[in-house]
Amino acid sequence: EPHKIDFMKYDKIDYSKDKYQIIINDIHKLTLKELKNNCLELSLKKSGSKPDLIKRILIHKLKLSYLV
Known about the structure:
By secondary structure, the chain is an all-alpha fold. It has helices at residues 19-28, 32-41, 50-61. Helix 1 (19-28) runs antiparallel to helix 3. The longest helix is centred in the C-terminal third of the chain and has 12 residues, at 50-61. The radius of gyration is 16 Å and the shape is elongated.
């Protein structure tokens, strides 16, 4: 029943050890040049803005293409 759910316990989840969060954080730390090189290594299009490159890499690495 919804009124019995303890939402406070979800605030205590530590996502820093989550493998997906680690990948996302690592990608966001890269420079534009590193992102372009990463795209080349993954055979992805290397042109576009930094957010576009991040999105492309994350879709590839997290296998999210079925959602797009």
